[in-house]
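agent> fetching stored inputs for the adenosine-5'-diphosphate docking request
agent> found them:
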Amino acid sequence: MDTRLYINGEWKTAEKGTFPVINPANGEKIGTAADGGKKETKEAVEAAEDAFKSWSALTAQERAGYLKEMYRLMMEKKDELGELITEEMGKPLQEAKGEVQYAASFLEWFAEEGKRVYGKTVPASSAEKRMMVIQQPVGVVGAITPWNFPQAMITRKVAPALASGCTVVLKPGEDTPFSAVKFAEICEEAGLPKGVFNLVSGQEASEIGGELMENEAVRKITFTGSTEVGRLLMKQGSEQIKKLSLELGGHAPVIVLDDADVDKAVQGSIASKFRNAGQTCVCGNRIYVQEGIYDEFIEKFKTEAEQLNVGDGFEDSVDIGPLINQGGYEKVDRHVKDALDKGAELVCGGEGFEENGAYFYKPTVLKNITHEMVIMEEETFGPVAPVQKISSDEEGVRLANSSPYGLASYFFTENLSRGMKVAEGLEYGIVGWNDGVPSAPQAPFGGWKQSGIGREGGSEGIEPFLETKYISMGV
Ligand code: ADP
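agent> prediction call returned; pasting tokens
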């Protein structure tokens, strides 16, 4: 592939040329993507600003028509788009196709939600007045997405933006620009008017991001990525009081109480922990198991973890693909070594390997974990499960909450009243109760504390793209 930028309905080369895109499973170059910068971003914003006038004037039904066609096209291309995800970022093919389906579901969901952007009337305190409240699209949106869900993070942002009447400039993760190019092709094929969706790929994130933040025509930034970059965007946004939605890092706890169905807890924890090789912000990162079932849980968890195959995501038998790059690998290795140095016991795994510039890590389980270990404080983003023993529900909730993050959390219990108290006690935006994979298009996704601002998905997911206007009318 040798791809271009998509600006104002045209495919354009970038002034700075191109940059290589690598398959993380074998280190081979898949192709090159256009290396857009400040100039092209500015051009894309101008196109989006221009298109906003007519796009926002369409009816919600008309916009829904485009989104439904995009949904149809994405489902039609599910296999091709899935293969591209595996090639660009390494997740196993079945998981990649699942991501495409998940990505498409946001197009369908928000096509409908766009029709439900209701206003209201408010009783006035004077007989000579009428008061009403309406919702209008915020304007041009800058969307910045990461590499770990190359397709779904785009649609989760772009679908509600388009449905509400906003126009978009997208900067995708530099490791995965091709999925974004395919998305732009779908926009074109669906007949989306020029300038409504624009794509600026590039390897200088701060240059493209900088223009999106500085350009006054961009009214809203929606970002998924690290807390560190989210913090920077907040600082930059303070100048113009830029509207911000931030989906940032997580450090998800998993609590297994002593009345849990252990098999269910093991299955749910395996699904949460090892999905995408542990490279999602909602992956279980620290497992707290109550003492009565600690040994049984670890034994069963180990048996399941050891059955997961590591390798190239295109191979049928593979459950865990490569880590995204050397930096990702080194972080995982550092976390495991630090835990072992501080007294953790290795249950299985504990090592990785490099092959032709690709980095793999075996599914790893550690026990005798304490909070002195880095792995209990930092997001690992790898297939490592540290297990700590707890004695009570309260201790589990206290340890779970002892983190600056608050995105996803999980717990397992069959007891309704215990479970309700735990669910209410967790300072997290998402709680999976006997459920390791809670994400869904119709549910709000987002974090408390340093995990972010705002929600994506659900009926909440369209709100960040709307401004409220109160109209007071004298009669
Ligand atoms: P990750 O660890 O997922 O790569 P990052 O926060 O580094 O998280 O990246 C998420 C997205 O943010 C990517 O598209 C990346 O290019 C972009 N990004 C990184 N640095 C900046 C920046 N200074 N300004 C704007 N976007 C940035």
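agent> quick read of the result: Residues 5-248+451-474 form a domain with the Aldehyde Dehydrogenase; Chain A, domain 1 fold (CATH 3.40.605.10).
agent> awaiting further instructions
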